[in-house]
Amino acid sequence: MKKLFLTGLFFIAIIISSFAQSDNAIIPESTKVIKGKLSNGLTYYVRHNEEPKDRASFYIIQNVGALLENDNQNGLAHFLEHMCFNGTKNFPKKGIIETMERHGVAFGRNINAYTAKQKTVYNISTVPTKDKPLLDTCLMVLHDWSHSLSLESEEIDAERGVISEEWRTRRTAQFRTSAQISPVLFKGSKYAIRDVIGSYDIINNFKPETIRDYYHKWYRPDLQAIVVVGDFDTKEMVAKIKKIFEDIPAAVNPALRPSFSIPEHSETYYVCATDKENTTSAVSIITILPDKDNYVDSKTYGSIKASLLKSFYNSMISNRMSEIMLKENPPFKGGSIGFSSLVRDYSSYSISAQAKPNEEAIAIKTSLVENERVKRFGFTEGELNRVKVNIMAQLEAGLKQVDKIASDDYIDDIMGNFLEKDPIIEYKVYYDYIKNILPKITVADVNNIAKIGNVKKNRTIIVTGPTNVKHITKAEVEKIILDVENDKSILAYKDQASSGSFFKENLVGGKIIKTNPLTEFGAVEWTLSNGAKVVYKKADYEKDQVSMIAYSEGGTSLFDKDMLPAASNASSFTSAFGLGNYNSLELKKALTGKMASVNVNISDRSESISGSSITKDAETMFQLMYLRFTQPRFDKVLYKSIMSRNYGMLPALKNDPKKIMQDSIQRIMANYNPRVQLFNKEYLDKLTLENIEKVYKDRIKDASDFTFFIVGDINEDVLLPLVEKYIGSLKSENRKETWKDNHIRTPKGKIVKNIELALTTPKTSVITVFNKEMKITRHNTICFSILKAVLDFRYTASLREKEGGTYGVGVQASTSKKPINKYTLVTQFDCQPQKADHLETLIFKGIDEIIKDGVTVEEISKSVKNQIKNHEQALPHNSYWMSVLTSYYIDDVDITDPKYFDKIINEISPKDIQKFAKKFFNKADTLEIFFRPKK
Q1: What is the pLDDT of residues 845-885, one digit of tens each?
Q2: Where are the beta strands (DSSP E) in 171-321?
């Protein structure tokens, strides 16, 4: 329960009956989770759940992580996680991955693991449950992860290279900055000296016996939990768990699993963590809060109330910080104040600010002043009431979606129960308690929370940023803190609540003049008197949810290159500006309690307005849509504020390798077409408010040029009046537009680019792109997706596993019909600079082998089964039917037709893949880009 401070309160759990309870009452444990413990100490959790249908997810949670390493094992908890996929008693070598992928359970997407400082978690997700032997196989995999790893010396040595490259890949500016912070923030604790990935020297030189010692000491049943959630018979599953896991022996004289504390301190610590690749300066004051100091028994309802109050506090102060950003020249680039989880048994209170260049003092002072304002005067009734109304609206919406909580989304609650003894709470229990207690929560209750965070012990000042900037000192920050505390000019916050309805239009509306049944989709098309088309389908897979997309062709392609900065950013700016007479914060207040939103997007070849709401707020969604068409807001003050921040980013971006790489790839891929423009001063100079307004008002108008798609849990008799009133009232110009081909093409032939970067951690990034103009067909597209999957398998085996040369090879395959029919395959990997050229030859070797020798039936089967599994999981959702309708109208494709997927996927052969590969790679345009470290 301690972790519920911030967002997503209605995703916690599911449904049983409950009555109002006192704060000290014990929360009833979920009756839908079967929990038990075997004689060897292993804990198990089993839950029936049907989202997705006919699927199950399997987890093993290890109550051990990097903090349990000895100094000579630094990094081996994470290394051991990798070794769990490199051979076990019942699955030698790569047997686990190969076995799972034969059943369409993909490595990386469905089979994965992660190591943290105090836990290690493995999962096999969305496994088909109709295949009963497969469920036994998954349990046996968990069994072997628990107790039967092979840990062969040759496999350990083979994995060293992979983890070395993961170590290299992780060495980003953010990671290096964090490595400077942790020894100070967590001073005197083991958190200060463990970063999970560990020591490069130990990774490459430890003796196999060292990792075996860690494994045998800590991987044992009394520190493990088996979790299975999904669509199956729970009694059968429990019986299987008992049968398969009882043979694991209990540990003899087990080592005591230590707990890890952070020493308290009265002195304020300070750290200035810089990196030449950092792009932003920031100042934070972090106060570590031991949970024991403000302990509320997590088994009681009081723990829910404590988390709720912190959530309210965070939300209200966040709104105040957002209000500052609406000023013409805000004193910082952004700020935040509030509570959050930190590590096990500890939370934190932070006061932070992102600073403009060389303005760290004014930035952190701004955040401190707002913090002080809350300390002295607290919040207002209006602020609290809005948060209450919004929370209740979210909870009620969540109550209608409990049957759509995915199996994997239950794991965090179960993990909290196993690792930290938190209760597993059913949604209805949570809902009923919040509904009962909400009216009783006062402003004073929330104001008192400030006392928990604003203590003067366990405090650390953290300054981060680039190396070429003068940073604020400890003495300067402490002086600002003292000055703010003694500042008598700080006044109470004045809450400017929005008055009346945000929508005041008196609309005449229009009429439906034509109805066209779409019987094949169970949908209908309406044509309105203003020329707008509306396509509607009732779909209640997600209860109480309604979605809308309005689509029109044209986009930024219709503007000349000098207007492109405005065209490409018009939708993001206007979204920030608000609507009509309301700025973004006023609009948020006006929409209190409403679960509806609408956004605009202007892309290369189209413009769209997308919206979503719960059923009762569908009219609000339509009102927002109408205002997006008719009353966009162009806020001069906020425009200047955003542009000021944009200009302020430019100096730091010059040293950002990611930005340099992104710019280079963008320009090279477009063959240096002048319409592809980089984010720089010249670009920003063209980004005027006048141009933004001109673009927006040209693209978002003329209802007759838009098709409106509406899918969701709303009846036709309710929807029809809304359609006629709001869409029917939009003006039309009867334009017949399409997008413009501006002839942006990838370069022809073979191009090789070597680009040098100044990198702190030397590495080479290798990107290879294959482009081929050829007719788009469904058969070819499915062949292409299978080819991509096969290359994924093979590159993992060759470049990662055999060579140990990279942490992984990313393979992407895409098709486009506009402006030309084209297939594109991209591979990307990072590696040691001296290995780059050799590893890149293996990319081409893998392709040549497929062209020459083809692919195997098993390779195709892996991909086919995974695609069929994913396709089946997508069907029972509203979003699938939105895709059906938009694909039919925009791309002229019926994705429900068996010829679109089922017939082709089930008849694909190795010869089809080989034939396609030959056709695609023959005379394909090839681009090889090497980003190498400067010598």
Answers
A1: 999 999 999 999 999 999 999 999 999 999 999 999 999 99
A2: 224-230, 269-274, 281-290
